Amino acid sequence: MALDSKIPKGPIKDKWTDYKNHIDLVNPANKRNIDVIIVGTGLAGGSAAATLAELGYNVKAFCFQDSPRRAHSIAAQGGINAAKNYQGDGDSTYRLFYDTVKGGDYRSREANVYRLAEVSANIIDQCVAQGVPFAREYGGLLDNRSFGGVLVSRTFYAAGQTGQQLLLGAYSAMNRQIGRGKIKMYNRHEMLDVVKVDGKARGIITRNLITGEIERHSAHAVVLGTGGYGNVFFLSTNAMGSNVTAAWKAHKRGAYFANPCYTQIHPTCIPVSGDHQSKLTLMSESLRNDGRIWVPKHMKDVEAIKSGTLKPRELAEEDRDYYLERRYPAFGNLVPRDVASRAAKERCDAGFGVNATGEAVFLDFASAIQRYGKETAHVKGLNENDAALVKKLGQEVIKNKYGNLFQMYEKIVDQDPYNTPMMIYPAVHYTMGGVWVDYNLMTTVPGLYCIGEANFSDHGANRLGASALMQGLADGYFVLPYTIGDYLSDDIRTGAIPTDSKEFEDAEKEVRKTLEFFVTNKGQHSVDYFHKKLGKIMWNKVGMSRNVKGLTEAISEIKELREQFWKEVKVPGTNEEYNEELAKAGRVADFLELGELFAKDALNREESCGGHFREDAVELDGEQKGEAKRDDENFAYVSAWEYKGEPSDAVLHKENLEFKDIELKQRSYK
Amino acid sequence: MNLTLKIWRQKNASDKGKMVDYKVTDISPDMSFLEMLDVLNEQLINKDEEPVAFDHDCREGICGMCSLYINGEAHGPDRAVTTCQLHMRMFKDGDTITIEPFRATAFPVIKDLIVDRTSFDRIQHAGGFISVNTSGNTIDANTIPINKHDADTAFDSATCIGCGACVASCKNSSAMLFVGAKVSQFALLPQGKVEATDRVLNMVKQMDEEGFGNCTNTGACEVECPKGISLENIARMNSEYLKASLKG
Fold first, then answer.
1. A132 within a domain of the structure (yes/no)
2. pLDDT at B248 (0 to 100)
3. Quick one: pLDDT at residue A361?
4. pLDDT band (50, 70, 90) for residue A401
5. Does the CB of B15 have a partner CB in chain A at under 8 Å?
6. Is residue A272 less than 8 Å (CB to CB) from chain B?
7. Is the ipTM of this complex over 0.90?
8. DSSP for A69-106, written as a single string
């Protein structure tokens, strides 16, 4: 099947408006006869559920958590971008579009990104109307901050809890519709398959996580807003339950999976402390507004700091290497995430890591505390030369901005980041790859949509900070409600979809077979045993820096591990009860397939772009020496993989990317 | 560290349930409390026993999924943290730790340490929102300036993670801190004032129907709240409720 991205014709700035003017609509009376299933209740799924219900469709929403409010969007910290230009610093729809395409290393679809930038401003209006308490200035207007990879301040925020506030906004919109009976909410339900009838997605099979009951649910369209697959690495900043299962089942039913190797390794996370660790914790990118990243210049100081004889704050300025400021003077500490992560790895690989494992760099707030302290003292007419006072005032400002993050850090590391620099290291955070969708956000399966992080569409090979929240809400509030209507306009006479068809029966049978296998298999290793092994392979060979040898090894090692898993996995308990190990087993089984496809995709892409860094594709000389080297001639395409059984048999389809409004250039942040 | 754990085991909602003793060894002080339970569960699985069921997800203190009543305190002995942020450095080698579910009539046990908190969701369905359509056809966000202090206070109320520690800590199993926080967030913002009367009446009515108790001002909820939601929220809700009742 040839990929058709269905990008509307016409100039980029008119595409979305023209599109909306010409789609088919469903009249309100008919919407009452149409059912839509939404899986996942994060920013994308939650906002889509609320909006579709409000339009009049019958929505059934599903989440595996005990409440839609707990979806992992809640953990997003720093903020949400919008081209409001409230700061008057030269921002515009075009500039947000340009920054996003450039930040994604020219591997995203122009038309989708432009639409995202276009609707971004409206998201803020919408959220404020819902009562989202964004940070404000003393004049009562909304405050902004700056994020990586851009030269303007366009990020709206609510302390370090922006995701929480936005999700609670979407959840409140859902609550209104649940109260009205327009959304039927299924908590603690996990989707285990998509059901296709006559080639169209017409329902899902779910497992009730409390009772183990297998249920059939039908609808005229199915929407997946099920998040990313970063947990394929075992350790990531994702929630423990975040998984690829819904997206992977869709893939197995015919949805192409795009760019699985595009993974964001976030530069500022709390370093790994030991084997017991179950997850990693992010320290928001917003901290790079005020924190400066450094390691010691000299090896003797590295040793002294590691052994505890030298305190980081005691090291003289001239003996510190602020390597981001040194290498990228234009963007400094606010280079994009992929660049900052690789730079940290480069310093640590060279031996300059500052903790026991050698995998940590400093993120230091001393100069920001000074700067804010002096400013506050000045405003209040106090003595700017009183060091203790300035420090106190400065710390208060920092606390106001990032208090919850500093507290999280202190609880985990047991050090006070107001008085000693934070230690940070890159960790898996977000996946730009995902289910392939066209301009309508529809997958290659008719009637099956994919929104938010679960799809691949907007961030290319690297996502800019504060853009995930923007995309999730744009998809759910403003894009899908139009595009899905165009599709559903053909279904006004279809009537309810029966669940007693052979298709539903077969899908249910298959789900039951797998579950039955898990609880009866006489294996000797827990699910985590395999998940951790998979994570190690992924991190070591398919992580921040990739080469042909490592990727080839990873592919065969993952395959072997998968075979071992299906022989030796042990799942206690039964299917007819709350059984977390059983739920985990199904998720890890899917990760073991995705992991191999991920490595295969990375092997196929013989260029470095964004988060995908190939050691055999670097600039060898000139100003950009050592930086990632893209190959636009051969790789300016989206890799969309078709399922054919084993991951090794997956067939590659290419969607060529055309850049008409932005010139393809070497991405420079120098 | 080596520890003795006394854990509430209950097969399902209708099972009677009992405390069971377990031993864990070689626990690192850098582990989180839930990672310590991961160690126990790995041990149990390897011995062909059933692992202990507990709720958890983000493990960074924001999703509100984790619960646990540890040594008689919701989220354990540390302050301003959730159970997933509690670290084993708060305990000593040789300690005995008692772990129970959050107990309240409105939070029935599902299994072991997992309770059903959907009563919280139902309270929100009753009025925890502003009735604005999500079409985007609204006024520019900066049209209505909001006093920074009010915005910050509304934000503080809005940081509630809905974990239920307030209910578990209250001798009356009152949910007034939770409901107060939601009512306050909207009451403090101009956008929320339009529906303020109906909101507080409907949410309080639902809260009572769910079987939560009343507030007798002992303040245990505030002490145990992982997000530091203050008692002022209850006071504000009471005054909103009084205002609304007088309006009729």
1. no
2. 65
3. 97
4. confident
5. no
6. no
7. yes
8. GGSGGGG--S-EE----TT-SS--HHHHHHHHHHHTTT
* Residues of chain B positioned with their CB less than 8 A from the CB of A122: 136
**What is the rounded average pLDDT of the residues A359-367?**
96
Chain B residues touching A144 at Cβ < 8 A? none
Nearest CB to A411: which of B87, B132, B135? B87
Terminal CA-CA length for chain B:
60
**Burial per residue of A379-388, b for 16 or more beta-carbon CB atoms within 10 angstroms, e otherwise:** eeeeebeeee
Domain boundaries, chain B: 3-110, 118-247
Number of H helices, E strands in chain B: 9, 7
Confidence of residue B31 (pLDDT cuts 50, 70, 90): very high
pLDDT class of B137 with cuts at 50, 70, 90: confident
Q: Chain B contact for A128, CB < 8 A?
A: yes
DSSP A99-150: HHHHHTTT-S-HHHHHHHHHHHHHHHHHHHHHT----B-TTSSBP-B--TT-
CATH architecture of B118-247: Orthogonal Bundle (1.10)
- Show residues of chain B in contact with A54, CB under 8 Å: 133-135
Tell me which architecture the domain covering B3-110 has in CATH: Roll (3.10)
Q: Is residue A255 classed as helix, strand or coil in its secondary structure? A: coil
Identify which of B60, B121, B125 has the shortest CB distance to residue A408: B60
Residue of B nearest to A123 (CA): B136
Rounded CA-CA distance A289/A291 in Å is 6
Which residue in the list A145, A202, A337, A667 is annotated as catalytic?
A: A337
**Active site includes A337?**
yes
Q: Is B136 left (phi over 0), alpha (psi -120 to 50) or beta?
A: left
Nearest by CB: A276 against B35, B60, B139:
B35
Check whether A400 has a pLDDT greater than 90.
no
pTM reported for the whole predicted model:
0.97
At residue B135, the pLDDT reads 82
Q: Give residues 443 to 482 of A whose Cβ lies within 8 Å of B.
A: 477-478
**What number of C-beta contacts closer than 8 Å exist between A and B?**
216
The H-or-E segment that residue A291 falls in is none
Segments forming the whole domain that contains residue A527: 500-637
CATH number of the CATH domain containing A302: 3.90.700.10
